[in-house]
Amino acid sequence: MIRKKRSDRNHVIYRMEMDTGDSYVGLTVANGAAYLRSVKVRVQKHLSRAKRENKDWNLYSFLRENEDVSITYEVLEVVRGRKPAHQRERELISELNPTLNTF
């Protein structure tokens, strides 16, 4: 039996703020009702991938070059459904103009 992909999950749109003034807006799938925990896990994944993968993305390049940077993160919004979440993420990126998003 083939499972249907779920499109009704909650997605968390978050912002990472660096003590340098740089920022990043991202999106992750919510793990239950612990939205901030979902963001924490995603931020840790960003940090890990920046160290072990040679991606030429603004965020990963910044994290490799600034290993001692202090990072805070916050939940901006929780959106139900994949397509609406991606649309809202794009809107927030346009509004907030984060410096570390790769376009």
How would you sum up this structure, described in words?
By secondary structure, this protein is α+β, with helices and mostly antiparallel strands. Helix content is 40%, strand content 25%. Strands 2-1-3 form a 3-stranded antiparallel β-sheet. Helix 1 crosses helix 2 (58-65). The longest helix is centred in the middle third of the chain and has 18 residues, at 35-52. 16% of the residues are buried. The model has no long low-confidence stretch (mean pLDDT 93).
Mean pLDDT: 93
Number of helices: 3
Biggest sheet strand line-up: 2-1-3
Strand content: 25-35%
Distance between the termini: 38 Å
Quick one: biggest sheet? 3 strands, antiparallel
Estimate percent helicity. 25-40%
What integer value in Å does the Rg equal?
Answer: 14 Å
Helix and strand run: EEHHEH
Structural class: alpha+beta
Principal-axes geometry comes out as globular
Spans of 5+ residues with little confidence (pLDDT < 50)? Answer: none
Number of strands: 3
